[in-house]
Amino acid sequence: MDKHTKRSIYIETYGCQMNLADTEIVSGILDRQGYRICTDIQEADAVFLNTCAVRDNAEQRIYGRLANLKPLKNERSHMVIGILGCMAERLRKSLIEDQDMVDIVCGPDEYRNLPMLIDDAFGGEKGIRVQLSRVETYDDIVPLRTEGISAWVAVMRGCDKFCSFCVVPFTRGRERSRGIHNVVREIEELVSRGFREVTLLGQNVNSYRDGDHDFADLLRKVAAVDSSLRVRFTTSHPQDMSDKLIETVAACDNVCKYIHLPVQSGSDRILELMNRTYTADHYLRLVEKIRRAIPDVALSTDIIAGFPTETEEDHRMTVELMERVRFDGAFMFKYSPRENTRAYKMGDDVPDEVKGRRLQEIITVQRDVSYQINRQLIGSMQTILLEGPSKRSEKEWMGRTDTNKTVIISNDGYTAGEYVRVRIDSATSATLFGTVATISESLSAA
Ligand code: 5AD
Ligand code: SF4
């Protein structure tokens, strides 16, 4: 029996979907070494927090979590605590120096060293591994996933865009892609295990490359694995959204008609300062092109309020762009200065209350637009993939449309993973409510 067999590891994941995928990779690495991945923190010999550093409030949450893990650590002196992910990479040894309960600090490209770090930590030795790599993609690691309907599959890592506000190029390093055949093989395996939906992940999936194959080629190959598998992808940078990719989304029935296309701002002056490499006009033309090629496409975006030097006029241009595009959804944030980024040196001159007010304004605009778009769907038929009981009640089930909208139906003994044809009866800005017409195993028949 392996010496680690009885060691149980508990991992909490914060931040983006990439971190969810990384937690499954870490679990795969540890599982292969004979550790047990547990879901009850009370059983844990080691607790890891897989962290986010994109905004300061994400980091504050981790400090808060560490503070409330303290009693557990005091109770069980042998318990090891580790910080993984972007915050580990950003803060490095200062994390161990400032937080004496932290034993391990391990950045996103060093997860293969975790078994060694854990062994050392159980021996009483703290450890830090934060080297970034130009080649690490964990392509050979089998992620440890719990059974389910929907899986995240990282196809590339890192980012070379260097948007001036963003810490990701510093915490996740340079762009690199997995091999196309390995991605396809992983998805075949997921399909054979009963998964019905995959989301291909990358900080900027559009710059995926494996030899002559680009992201559109990968998407087409993944879509061909099984016509009843829904295929999603995120995130797309407007600069790299090629005609070929748009045509591929339009041509493949099981590639979802939903594109997350962060715009960040509607002001050309701010976009330039952000190093986004497009203008508002470019963006609007891209949206038009996408809508022409994929008529029912849903679009979502990311927006930052209160970037350095942002004036009321800049902010108004963002609101105007939102009103012109009419996004189905948006993730909206107050600007948060991150050390080492170019924007950090521009100062943080928009007062917090101004940021807060601008954020509230764009949230209100978006909520109105989402509500109007959702209301127009009342009376329409939608195919949804059932994911399970709704968060609110066992009596209700939730599923998602191709365009990524949440639909609630009453539970009539359905099974997760079924496609059901639903008539939409009512809508809020965030949710649709419907009645089932037909159930099917396959996407085309539903
Ligand atoms: N402050 C606020 N929001 C940020 N984002 C990235 N960096 C920052 C920052 N420093 C947002 C961007 C990005 C999303 C993932 O997070 O909108 O698209
Ligand atoms: Fe950050 Fe820009 Fe890269 Fe997105 S594209 S991860 S915002 S640097």
Strand order of the largest sheet: 2-1-3-4-5-6
- Unreliable stretches (pLDDT < 50, length at least 5) are none
Backbone CA Rg? 22 Å
Biggest sheet record: 6 strands, parallel
Please count the helical segments: 13
Count of distinct structural domains: 4
User: CATH superfamily of the largest domain, called what?
Assistant: Methylthiotransferase, N-terminal domain
CATH topology of the largest domain, by name, is Rossmann fold
CATH architectural designation of the largest domain:
3-Layer(aba) Sandwich
Oligomer: single chain
Share in β-strands: 15-25%
CATH class designation of the largest domain: Alpha Beta
Q: What small molecules does this complex bind?
A: 5'-deoxyadenosine, iron/sulfur cluster
Structural class: alpha/beta
The average pLDDT score comes to 95
Helix content range: 25-40%
Q: Name the overall outline.
A: globular
Termini separation: 49 Å
Counting DSSP E segments of at least 2 residues, the number of strands comes to: 21
